[in-house]
Amino acid sequence: MEENKLRQLLDSLTWKEKVGQLVQLSGDFFHSEELTVGPKKKLGITQEIIDVVGSVLNVTGAETTRDIQEKYLMNSRHKIPLLFMADIIYGYRTIFPIPLGLGATWNPKLIKEAYEIIAKESRSAGAHVTYAPMVDLVRDARWGRCLESTGEDPQLNAHFAEAMVRGLQKEQNGHLEGIASCVKHFAAYGAAEAGREYNTVDMSERRLRQDYLSGYKSAVDAGAKLVMTSFNTYDGIPVTGNEFLLKDILREEWGFEGVIISDYAAVQELIAHGVAKDEREATLLAMNATNDIDMKTGCYANELEPLINKGEIDPKLVNDAVWRVLKLKNALGLFEDPYRGSTVIQEKENLLTEENRNLARKVAQESLVLLKNADNLLPLKPNHQKILLVGPYGDEQDLIGLWAVHGKSEDVVSIKSALEKILKQDNFSFEQGCGLLSDYQFLGEFGATKEQIGSLKMTETEKKIALKQAVEAGKKADIIIYAMGEHTMQSGEAGSRTDISLPKNQQEFIEQMVELGKKNILISISGRPLTLTKEVEQMDAIIQAWFPGTEGGNALVDILFGKVNPSGRLSMSFPENVGQLPMYYNEFKTGRPLNSSTHRGRFVTKYLDSPNAPLFPFGFGLSYGTVDYDELKLSSERMTTDLEISIRLKNQSPYECLETVQLYIQDVTGSVVRPTKELKKYQKVNLLPKEEKIITFSLDRSDLYYYMKDMRFNTETGDFLVFVGKNSNDTIQASFELI
Ligand code: GLC
């Protein structure tokens, strides 16, 4: 629609119709009959508002969305189509690995391809907007939503944020071919104190800008059409009513002209936060902060019009918000085609295709991280050894994680079925061995009934039999593969935990099994870094598999048998124990570093009962090959505008290796304290067997910029260290002077 016509449309709306565009309701408001008693009554939303509402939350499927849209438009005076928005975080029907696994690929280019597929499936299923990517920087593995993040590094997060937005919002001949991206959760939700869900976030503006904003900024710069506010506070003010974040930074400093939508009920939660007395004040706070859409509460629906009529809010704020929503609908072409071509036939053709599965398998292969491989136990040779697969994830298809909302476990290739495809019967056996958990009571909070919870729990007899059968089978095996991990519902939203080791019953099972003295391989399925401290001692090999998605079983078997050489590198540190958290590689220096020359013994930054170091550091991952790094060279010892840095890689192995060469810097002296290391460059490099390559990086002066004492984003002259290597710990060091 021409913009002038769109403006005329805006001007022709009543205030109620305008308010309607700023309200988002869930699907049950549109196709369930018992609205009077159910959600409508609960939210106090009138039918008048439902008839003019602007968008729908988490309804997908060509048939359903078409049906709702058709009925809605029939009653619509101005024929303004509904926007269908949904949580499509790392896959619609073809589910890729969780984003913490995507981060471990260090391959934004590949992830952009994945998100193009996600957009294609989603669009054909009637989705117009996805609440993705989630780009919250994470440093605390107790927080369940690490699952949705690409990790702890500002720059890596920024690269993935851009890749995901560009993949989702793929342009074709100047038109939006994909779906609109709603980047979330703005801002710094990942810094919830104590890793406790929905808890306070408080930090300096310097830390906010230096570490936490990069992902959102990158997404906005990549053209994300929406931003979702986060539940947390920043500097004592909840983000959904925080003018500094939403107006000053997002809109004015970054020039974001898209739609800001609150997270679920976050407008009304301003009351619970204690910054609004009632829904009227909550509405005022949120609208004055330029939050455009109120997700799933009655605040805007019931309070905005009275505020306008009483002259208690600037009508321009509301008109501007409605204008942004109408422009979004126009950018999606909804006025010309409210269904964006989504049909049941097209949906069937586009979902879960072989091409999509193949890409999901490739991404999963690159997401898997080999954490240990003693005596090069891996890769295995098919049918050379007797293999026993044990553990609750062995024959489990639920490998897609909590936020795979529209994925189906029955599409998933389990580890067992993938193994059965390449191993002969007399070389392979499977025994469950133990349950996923010993107690499922917590599922009650997610709506599970007592009966469902009861059915999940193994009886004492069942436990004894399962263990006995596993031990008996283990005696006949040469190698035991343990498919273990945390329950899907133990991570993701509302999944904060203070004990992030493997479930106790699984640990007890492992203790019994390793007594057999066989070769042991752990596959860890989790939505976060787990403290695998005990397992590192017990296992000969460990693969961190995340929730690997629809093709997870196949990808794991590809790695186990060497069809693919593992190349994943951690994008989030794995702690030795939960007491070390929050933990991140790019920590500041302190006045009493561990290796202090001026202080001895206990009087340095350390614990009495734990190392400072992570179990596995940021950037860590093993390969089946051995690649040596040497000959680090700088084009000069002094840098003015740029510096060339090179390093030689030599593949000493018979394997083709995909190495992620990482370059870090340290600003030795700044006007404020600087991190011990900061990732600045990385390259994924393929090395043929015995191949040698010189890898070069170009460091620009702007790569050294940071928020200095006066908050200017720049740098000061002085000494810098540069580190190049295969992870944040294992590097070769050099230095240069910035002049
Ligand atoms: C949830 C999540 C958010 C999600 C939204 C809509 O509470 O915080 O990530 O997109 O509600 O489901």
TrEMBL record:
The reaction(s) this protein catalyses: Hydrolysis of terminal, non-reducing beta-D-glucosyl residues with release of beta-D-glucose
Enzyme Commission (EC) number: 3.2.1.21
GO BP terms: glucan catabolic process
Stored Gene3D superfamilies: Glycoside hydrolase family 3 C-terminal domain (3.40.50.1700), Glycoside hydrolase, family 3, N-terminal domain (3.20.20.300), Immunoglobulins (2.60.40.10)
One of the Pfam families matching this protein, by short name: Glyco_hydro_3_C
Domain Fibronectin type III-like: 659-728
Gene Ontology terms for molecular function: beta-glucosidase activity
Keyword entries, A-Z: Glycosidase, Hydrolase, Signal
Top-level lineage group: Bacteria
Family, similarity comment: Belongs to the glycosyl hydrolase 3 family.
Name of this chain's protein: beta-glucosidase
Source species of the chain: Enterococcus hermanniensis
Lineage, broadest ranks: Bacteria, Bacillati, Bacillota, Bacilli, Lactobacillales
